[in-house]
Write a structure and sequence with these properties.
heterodimer; A: alpha/beta; Rossmann fold; three-stranded antiparallel sheet; 37% helix; B: mainly alpha; ABC transporter involved in vitamin B12 uptake, BtuC; Arc Repressor Mutant, subunit A; 2 domains; 74% helix
Chain lengths: 258, 441
């Protein structure tokens, strides 16, 4: 691995949902050991971007490299925290069972989690302060506790790069503090963390690197350098009417509506 | 009838043993796979698959002239899977939504199946062929060869389920996470659908295409009421399904011409109704009792608050008539009396000469309730979440839910941001409370 190989390199990536482009021509290099905030208005393509990095949504064009290699080869070093609302929390499963899923990538097809996996899962729950809730059914947890369980699952993946989709959405202040402490610890261990984030007030406090997104990358770099009023204005101010109208027209044409 | 029952109970007849084992297999596999189908919200896909299997049965017979179960089931599988694929095609390539697509495939295939069956019957060989049993099921028609086929299929289903339990669980709970780990969710999904299809085939002859989906759905839904663990749910659903199979077959054996499928489904429905009503946590009864308990507690806390607030207004007085409390609480005197009696039993209130007064314990709890109520009002008001005259209603509802930890937080916030001395929020010395209630008075 050469020294200048970044954990995440994105080149000329365009993503379309139902033929409608939601992210245009993304070019990005994320350096190692950064705590990265991905910010932008609703529909800017924040979640889409991290899903595209993990090959969860098809790319219309472009490529992503993880430490210079394809995602398929490197997925064991990537941990993922999806949006909390993306799953059914009434599913009959305990907190520990959810965290154990973080081990599935290491366990492989058809095999069961072993003693070591259980041990790692319990440690991960302890790290997020949920050790006493291991056997609790997930619907009996509060929103903040559910989010911690998701974080514990990612910790159990024992990854080098973490992708987190709005881990602070709808959590209590104590959970937010606990999560950010863990993220800082991870960064100090040299891990790279990408966090989709909504709260602009905490960006400078939480993240040392920021990606500002609105259907394209408006700015990416050290927070103190790129998190400026001008870039915020470009990201949030003025809807990108031309871009979104063009996208809509493209979608209609390709679907055969016009 | 008694004869039939005896014949059944003693298992003397080999045929009875086959029938019994067959219906046990159907019920158990239905429950096992049904749990996954229901949690994955695919139960109606199972129904479409079953209905779509009917023309396959008829065509297989017309084509080969054989009525051997493997032949008919092969035909059923082909047309069932074809139906599901067509459904997927409709969903993916038109703007028709899943429910309508299921409806279209289900009715069209079933219609074709009925036409073909009628045709076979007209040509005279229909009754001998016994194909009509695939409509509503006839467990009594199971013979040893059928059972061999069913056992092999059931064994296969259980084996695959045990091997891929972990993958299925993760697929249903969080597919995108599973995919991010490098598992092919598409492949796992196809495997699960395949197992559901096989399960339908196992039950086709004995339960019939019309009702087999109920053997997938009902035991699973019943089992969900009793447990919060997937493995327990799956086993319990299998037990419910198996029991439905056995009891259903027994009942339908008591008299001639009772089709097995509907009876099995009715037994499963009985399990469902009992579960829905009586299950300890999720059951309707348990939930109703909890609601009632909460409502009662809420009413009692209002009573205590009314006592405290009257005491603030009239510091000399320590006991109140039912009517006074009724006005303060805005309830009828009868209701006030009923709540007062409940509180008397728990030792929070004393009743003398028709007047109510608070005991020491009652005073303590009452003060806590009043404090919660007022802190919450202040909080909503100062955070300008609500206008002053709208504050009281939400506070009425929320005060019962505030825990001591939340109260402490509220006190901190109000003291820090508004300089409110929360010790002064209640004044029982008749000098008037610092607290002013918003708008209502």
């Amino acid at each position: 691995m050469s020294q200048n190989t970044h954990p995440i390199q994105i080149h000329d990536m365009t993503i379309a949902y139902h033929k409608k482009p939601v992210l245009w021509d993304v070019d990005l290099d994320v350096p190692e050991g950064q705590l990265v905030g991905i910010i932008g208005p609703n529909g800017a393509g924040k979640s889409t971007m991290i899903k595209a990095i993990m090959d969860l949504v098809p790319k219309a064009s472009g490529w992503v490299k993880i430490y210079g290699k394809d995602y398929g080869e490197m997925r064991k070093i990537i941990g993922y925290v999806p949006q909390r609302e993306s799953v059914d929390w009434d599913f009959p499963i305990s907190a520990l069972d959810v965290v154990l899923m973080g081990r599935y990538g290491h366990i492989g097809w058809m095999r069961r989690p072993g003693k070591e996996d259980r041990c790692i899962a319990r440690e991960s729950l302890d790290k997020v302060g949920m050790g006493d809730f291991a056997e609790r059914q997930i619907s009996q947890l509060s929103g903040g506790q559910q989010q911690r369980v998701f974080l514990a699952r990612a910790l159990a993946q024992d990854a080098r790069i973490y992708m987190m989709d709005e881990p602070f959405a709808g959590v209590d202040a104590a959970t937010e503090r606990a999560i950010i402490d863990i993220l800082v610890t991870l960064r100090e261990q040299g891990k790279t963390i990408l966090v989709v984030h909504h709260d602009l007030q905490t960006v400078t406090e939480y993240f040392n690197w920021v990606i500002m997104l609105n259907m394209r990358v408006v700015a990416s770099g050290l927070t103190r350098e790129v998190f400026t009023d001008e870039n915020l204005q470009k990201t949030y101010g003025g809807r990108l009417t031309v871009l979104s109208q063009a996208a809509q027209a493209m979608a209609e044409q390709r679907r055969g509506d016009r | 009838m008694l004869e039939n029952a005896l014949r059944f109970m003693t298992l003397a007849d080999a045929n009875v043993r086959f029938v019994l084992l067959g219906s046990l297999l159907i019920g158990a596999t239905g429950g096992l796979l049904g749990s996954f189908a229901v949690l994955r919200r695919r139960s109606l896909v199972g129904d479409a698959l079953a209905h779509a299997a009917l023309p396959g049965v008829a065509l297989a017979y017309l084509w080969t002239g054989s009525k051997a179960l493997p032949v008919l089931l092969a035909g059923a599988t082909v047309s069932g899977v074809l139906g599901v694929l067509l459904m997927q095609f409709i969903i993916n390539f038109t703007r028709i939504k899943a429910d309508a697509a299921i409806g279209i495939v289900l009715s069209v295939f079933f219609g074709i199946g009925i036409v073909l069956l009628t045709h076979i019957q007209r040509t005279g060989s229909g009754n001998q062929s016994g194909l009509d049993k695939f409509l509503f099921g006839q467990a009594a028609s199971l013979v040893e060869d059928d059972l061999k086929v069913m056992s092999v299929l059931a064994g296969l289903i259980i084996l695959v389920l045990v091997l891929f339990f972990k993958e299925f669980k993760a697929l249903i709970f969080d597919p995108s996470f599973l995919q991010s780990l490098g598992y092919s969710t598409r492949w796992i999904d196809v495997l699960l659908m395949g197992l559901i299809a096989l399960t339908v085939m196992v039950g086709l002859q004995a339960v019939g295409v019309v009702l087999i989906a109920a053997m997938l759905i009902t035991p699973a839904v019943a089992a969900r009421f009793w447990t919060e663990q997937l493995n327990k749910m799956v086993l319990l659903a299998a037990a419910f399904g198996g029991a439905s199979g056995i009891v259903g077959t027994f009942v339908s054996s008591l008299a001639p011409r009772i089709p097995t499928g509907p009876v099995m489904v009715l037994v499963a429905t009985f399990f469902f109704v009992v579960s829905a009503l009586l299950a300890p946590k999720r059951g309707v009864l348990a939930r109703g009792l909890r609601r009632q308990h909460n409502a009662r507690r809420e009413a009692q806390q209002h009573f205590l608050r009314a006592c405290i607030e009257l005491q603030e207004k009239l510091a000399q007085q320590r006991a109140w008539a039912m009517e006074e409390l009724a006005i303060e609480m805005g309830h009828s005197p009868d209701k006030v009396k009923r709540i007062g009696r409940q509180l008397e039993k728990t030792g929070l209130v004393l009743r003398q000469d028709g007047r109510f007064s608070l005991t020491e314990a009652g005073l303590e709890e009452g003060l806590f309730v009043v404090k919660s109520h007022r802190l919450w009002e202040h909080y909503l008001y100062y955070r300008t979440i609500l206008d002053a005259d709208h504050v009281d209603r939400p506070a009425d509802e929320v005060e019962h839910l505030l825990t001591p930890e939340i109260i402490v937080r509220l006190e901190e916030i109000l003291a820090r941001e508004r300089g409110i001395d929360t010790e002064q929020i209640i004044n029982l010395h008749g000098t008037g409370s610092q607290y002013r209630r918003g708008g209502r008075e």
